[in-house]
Amino acid sequence: MRIVPLLALAMLCAGCAADEGAGGYGVAQAETGAEFRRDVNALLYILDPPCPITEVPELVALYEPANVRFAALENSLEGTVSGIDIVVARADYPLTQPLVECANPDGPDARQNVERAVSEAMDLIAKLEASSDQSPVK
Fold first, then answer.
1. 28 with 20: CB under 8 angstroms?
2. pLDDT of residue 113
3. What's the pLDDT at 22?
4. Given phi > 0 = left and psi -120 to 50 = alpha, else beta, which region is 79?
5. How far apart are CA 134 and CA 79, in angstroms?
6. Per-residue model confidence (pLDDT) at position 86
7. For the chain, which ranges sit under pLDDT 70?
8. Nearest to 33 by CA among 90, 83, 96, 95
9. d(Cα 18, Cα 25) in Å, to the nearest integer?
10. CA distance 136 to 29
């Protein structure tokens, strides 16, 4: 499962260092994209947490607007510097999650916790939209 994102990154970034000054993705883009990738990782933690807040379909559905908005952003950034940063963040995400034993979801505050998580996700998406580097990558 993890091979596909890494393969996509390798294909997107083939010859990165050689093209860095001419519309490529190199060290400078990797360094300036670090905060963007951190924010993508934080967003993925909310939208695809290792320990879900809820399993109740009605509450899970509350995540849909954030998932749709992030997918639209991701699609709009395909072939750009920030598009590569999203691919890298997605590939790194499973590796950054600690192995934990999850508590039972759907505690008494599940709805409130989901609503807060969705609000945080929407804030992160707005930040990603505003800070994305839409420079094309050759």
1. yes
2. 96
3. 57
4. left
5. 8
6. 98
7. 1-22
8. 83
9. 9
10. 12
Three-state secondary-structure class, residue 80: strand
Angle subtended at Cα 95 by Cα 119 and Cα 34, rounded to the nearest 5 degrees:
65
- The pLDDT assigned to 21 comes to 52
In Å, how far are 1, 18, 72, 88, 134 from 11, measured between CA atoms? Answer: 17, 14, 22, 12, 18
Q: Which amino acid is at 131?
A: S
Look up residue 5 and give its two tokens.
Answer: 């994102």
SS3 per-residue string spanning 58-90: HHHHHHHHHHHHHHHHHHHCCCEHHHHHHHHHH
Would you say how long the chain is, in residues?
Answer: 138
Distance CA 6, CA 91 (A): 6
50's tokens: 């290792």
Contact, 83 vs 136, CB < 8 A?
no
How many angstroms separate the Cα of 50 from the Cα of each of 39, 46, 77? 17, 9, 26
